[in-house]
Records
---
Amino acid sequence: MKKLCILTLAVVLVLGMGTLTMASHGTLEDGAEVSDTAGITIDVGKYAQVGFDEGHYEDELFEKALKGKPGVYISDGGATKDKALDHWGSDLEVVAEEGQLPNPHVAFFQVLANTDVDISIHSDFGGWLKSPTLFIVSSDEDDINGIGSWQDNLAMIGNETGEDYENSFPVDYGTFNEKGRLDFHVNGAIWIQEIAQQAADTYTTEIQVTVAAQ
């Protein structure tokens, strides 16, 4: 029994010494130090924030009633007018040359993310006008904390059957890291083709902006 206890103690000592040999060791004489390190790993999940700011600009794209007269109506200014006429035809009459100005009527939204993302725009036109409609995303790196310029058509959707709309655009993480929360506008254009195209009434829809990791 005594031999068994001695053997067991010897095994414990050997295992203990084996464990200690994995650690840093050395003299502490004359101010010397002994240290070791432990690696720490952590994963950060992909995360984003998106939101419309109704208080930033006028929150109704078409606050003023459309006259009903055939022609093109725009929500704000020249850049949106140019995009609409480029899509529908430059010979069309613009009923309101400056749209809803003097106040810029846009749907203003912001996006922030910690990864490369695709930003897309959607709308359900089920209860909307029969008149062709465009909702266009734009931004500007000078006037607002955005990207590109007002003339850039980042994304566009509409209610015309058979049209192939490009409704999304990419933004890389480096842009968010440099500029922070990015600003964007949704602008609108409507082409009333004939007086009786739809009844005089109030029409509503919603615009949805979606952010997805690439």
---
Amino acid sequence: MTRSNWPILLIALGLTACGGVATPAPTASGRLPTQAVPLILEPTEILPEPGAGIPTPERVTTALIDQRLNPFADPACALPCYNGLTPGQADLSVALAFFSRLGISPIDMVPGDYETTLDGTGHLGASLIRATNIAEAVSAGYRPPTAEIAMLAGVVDNVQVNWPYYPSYLTLPTVLQQLGAPDIVGIGLQFTSTPPGYVLVLIDIDRQTGFIFAGVTQQGVGQLDVCPNEQTITNMAMGVFSASQTPLAGSDIARATLPLEQSTGITQDVFFTQMSAGGCLSVTADHWPQWQTP
């Protein structure tokens, strides 16, 4: 079982599978909000006592959360291992441990998630708001990431994280430097805002991982420049999947993109060179109709 992937990005961009624009459907009742809402609560004192199989959530800072969400920080847990969890191998206890390392217990998850997952299939989702310094961080402009784990027949099927900002430890040049050239690159444009938005999707099949970078283009004469950097990126997401499925195969956002070279004439070699150097991709006007409203 799966549910709509990454509603934050999809709603923000309004992308459809045919590359057009659609009014976003409302999220399912009780799911993660379209913005990460930091509910400022007193840490750990209000949490229930851990029960059988429920680990004690660790006391973490926003800096420690970032370190544990960094897929390249721990050489002993290389992708597709992520924060101590490998999709396709981990069970519910490991999924709960994944969240406890981020300061999260079942009471912090989307209401009903933990209970409905006890039969082996379901989702565990939470906004990562339990850092001990969360109040100060939010006052300074911090927006918490969200994390979600999908369980299937008692095994973790995938884990997905969304950052409503561009994490410094997961920039596009960093991803390319760490993993090399991706197996698949997709690109999407949307024209409902000024300047138009973009989505880049990168898939590494061997590591069972997909990345999504979403932001706004820079407009030139007869072209749109896609320049993934801190000034243009609005959201970034990553998903690690079990070996039984292609990363992002069920993602509405990935389906709204087109193969890079086929849709723009830009080869993956050029993409790798330009993006590794922190550069831009220019999509000329003759390619725009593929994503514009018919």
---
Amino acid sequence: MRNKTIVAFIALLLLLPIAGLAVGNGDGNGRGSGNGDVEQPIKQPRGQQPAGQGNGLARVCDMIEDQADRIGGKFLQQQQRLQETRTNRDGALSQHWEDRSERLADRRQKLEERHEERFGMLLGKADDDDAKKQAVLELQQALQDAVRTRQAAFDQALADYHAAVAEARDGRRDMFNEAADALTEAIDAAIAQAKAACESEDADIKSVRSELRAALQAARNDFRQAIKDVPNYGMTIRALVEARNAAFSAAREEFRTAAEAARQDFKDKLAELPADEDESEADTEADEDSGSSGE
């Protein structure tokens, strides 16, 4: 799930090498020729160059310095925006999970209160029949144990899901950050090499431009490949959701089996006292609502 800021940051990083190449589109006198393929090499040593060509090389070197400053400024701005976006998204996701957890806890509390009320009614119907009361209490305990087991399984599935989402997010960010750092280092190295070449006595404007262009293009290609190697976040999350939902389904099925066994045992002991089929189903529906928690 790439947000607009991340996409913009990647676009900027991919375009920066092109910006760096702008220094190579002059005609040797610092003016655009209108044709980037037309290059005028200066083969004489710098001290023996004609005045116009020497000034052209100096201008190109100055432009390299200016481009480096602009690139650094844009990098810093985009990195700050990206960090702000990440912080905001992390806060929103944490709040979302916290809200879902609070709603689930409130729902469970209300269902537990309703179950207590229903079993109180069943105990009231038993009057002074100790055998019936004991059967009701055993049914209540069995269903409560089944509910708690299922809730614990749900809570564990949610905790595992949240941890896996955070791990996938952080891992993806680390890969992206490493790719961006490698790109900036490569660009810095290319610009430093170009500036050093400008200072040499036999500086050749054609060589300075072509070598800078090749180095920046290689840096951009490496960055593109590194970005392609970053796992697709959407596919990763879908796989985690499927694993979480599978755990939910297994917990529900285990609960239904335990609840049905408890009701059947109750019926076998006291056939004259029908089981309340709503005792387990209401709570099952409540926990099923948590199946989308954290998505």
